[in-house]
């Protein structure tokens, strides 16, 4: 369900939400539009989205984002932070396609408001965001949800050192580590009590090359003792056992690499992305929606069905390698051939599994 009549009393105060985008390939603006549509469709209060972007955002995508807000009679303001990248993005990340995640570090210096909500662009707001907005954070710099998944994929000796030596050295507390994808920021307190941008520069100069989670680690470092932990419904990251009627009332944070536009791994949750996309100017009609869905899926290596042309290219590459290789390198070439075949078998198995999940999502 995309809208509830019982979403709560209308409040005249305009809710302020900040999003950030680097759109180097022109495709990410669509995901921003989905986040905006999910906010607007479920929130009865007036909302203004402040979109922090750099020069990669095209004029055509700007128009579509403005129209997204217009469709819901809400507002959006585009803020180009290209000239401020040096204030928030470490030098070795300034050409990175993922540098937008650092733009959130500019928020305290950009806005004169008392507070603002920040959201990552891989969330779906399937609740009235006024619930988050009206949480009292007068005594805290921010409110966030405890992150119990951040360290699940960190393995090996290097990650062990990061978690048990580096984190202890710099003062990041694993037992009270919050996810920075959904934040309610007390800008008045941050600007009063912290030299924020100076802290950003100092932190990344000292620890930028040894921390695993970039700006999220920085925020936990700075606010480890100044964070109000809130209900995980405001940043739900665990979707195990979720049912069709159990998706409303949450901000759903799709934290893993499998995004709705690249795979189908979370029945009922991934569906919401496409439902909200259909409500934006990035999707003109059902035909466009289906075409977009199929194009995205076909870009994923696990969904790509090899044609006879693919096999011809494989054979040509293998023959070239054998013809040009030294005798002692033959075992390696043959091993690579076996790996290619093994990958094809695994790919077929995965396709069959995903097809079954789609047919029987429960």
Quick structural gist:
The protein is α/β, with parallel strands linked by helices and 362 residues long.
Instruction: Note the gap between the termini.
Output: 19 Å
Strand content: 5-15%
Structural class given helices, strands, pairing?
alpha/beta
CATH topology of the largest domain: Spore Coat Polysaccharide Biosynthesis Protein SpsA, Chain A
Q: Name the CATH architecture of the largest domain.
A: Alpha-Beta Complex
- CATH superfamily label of the largest domain: Spore Coat Polysaccharide Biosynthesis Protein SpsA, Chain A
Portion of residues within helices: 40-55%
Query: Numbering strands along the chain, what is their spatial order in the largest sheet?
Result: 3-2-1-4-7-6-8
Q: What low-confidence regions span 5 or more consecutive residues with pLDDT below 50?
A: 1-11
Largest sheet entry = 7 strands, mixed
H/I helix tally:
13
How many distinct beta strands?
9
Count of discrete domains? 2
In CATH, what is the class of the largest domain? Alpha Beta
Helix and strand pattern: EHEHEHHEEHEHEHHHEEHHHH
Structural overview:
With 362 residues, this protein is α/β, with parallel strands linked by helices. The chain has two domains: 15-291, Spore Coat Polysaccharide Biosynthesis Protein SpsA, Chain A (Alpha-Beta Complex); 301-359. 42% of the residues lie in helices and 14% in strands. The protein has helices at 28-42, 59-71, 85-88, 107-110, 130-133, 156-170, 187-193, 196-207, 214-222, 269-277, 286-299, 308-324, 330-359; strands spanning 15-21, 47-53, 75-80, 115-119, 123-126, 142-146, 178-186, 227-229, 250-253. A seven-stranded mixed beta sheet has the order 3-2-1-4-7-6-8, with helices on both faces. Helix 1 (28-42) runs parallel beside helix 2 and helix 1 (28-42) packs across helix 10. It is globular and about 70 Å long. The two termini are 19 Å apart. Residues 1-11 have low confidence and may be disordered.
